Amino acid sequence: MFEARLSQGSVLKKVLEAVKELVTDANFDCSETGISLQAMDNSHVALVSVLLKADGFDPYTCDRNIPLGVNLGSLNKILKCAGNEDTITLKVDDTGDTLNLLFESQNNDRFGEYELKLMDIDQEHLGIPETEYDAIVVLSSGEFQRICRDLSGISESVSISVTKEGVRFQAKGEVGTGNITLRPSSSVDKGSESVSIKLTSPVDLTFSLKYLSNFTKAAPLSDKVTLCMATNTPLLVEYNMEECALVRYYLAPKIEDEE
């Protein structure tokens, strides 16, 4: 038996928006700790990891581990039928063939009931090794989204270099070059616009802007985004909605010869 009720239905909608273009079909693994998803994108370049924490639901009942094989495009179509303020309840009976979704409006005057056929998806669970990062940058998720959007007009890739002076995003293309530098600032006045850098050693790596731009679809989940970098190691892009959701993306750096 699995049942989970989410009073902020918009959280589930935002999480799905954040991953549906990278992954087509995936297992949502339901356990005592919450609902998790881990999958490579269709090109096997990026890895996405999602956790919807059990504490974010009320109630949350899961008496055994259940994989819910879902086509994310189909689930997204159903979730579009829910209002952002609706409460969303997810249920799977003991047969485990369908996912039942109940949408309730805030004043309980509208109820929507939907069923989604579940799929049998054979998916290996990829172990993500614990990594010591050389640089950890925390910045406004809106700022990161804007940087990726602006530089996408110049090049297909961006080099991100981090020193104690700041973080620089540089794009070089046929039309010219673009450089955006953010200096560390912890001013209380800046709030979510502040930039913090934890640095063990300077890093300079190049990544695909197409993928980074796709990752920024998770921006509505959190005011802040964390970028974790180390030489010859995939970039970790993390959006943490403390109470209920955690979305992480991993992207391998480009090798210079690929340029």
UniProtKB/TrEMBL annotation:
Kindly provide the name given to this protein in its UniProt entry: DNA sliding clamp PCNA
Keywords, comma-separated and alphabetical: DNA replication, DNA-binding, Nucleus
Give the Proliferating cell nuclear antigen PCNA C-terminal domain ranges: 127-254
PANTHER family associated with the record: PROLIFERATING CELL NUCLEAR ANTIGEN (PTHR11352:SF0)
Main subcellular localization, coarse class? Answer: nucleus
The signal peptide stretch is: none
- What SUPFAM superfamilies does the record point to? DNA clamp
Any Gene Ontology biological process: leading strand elongation
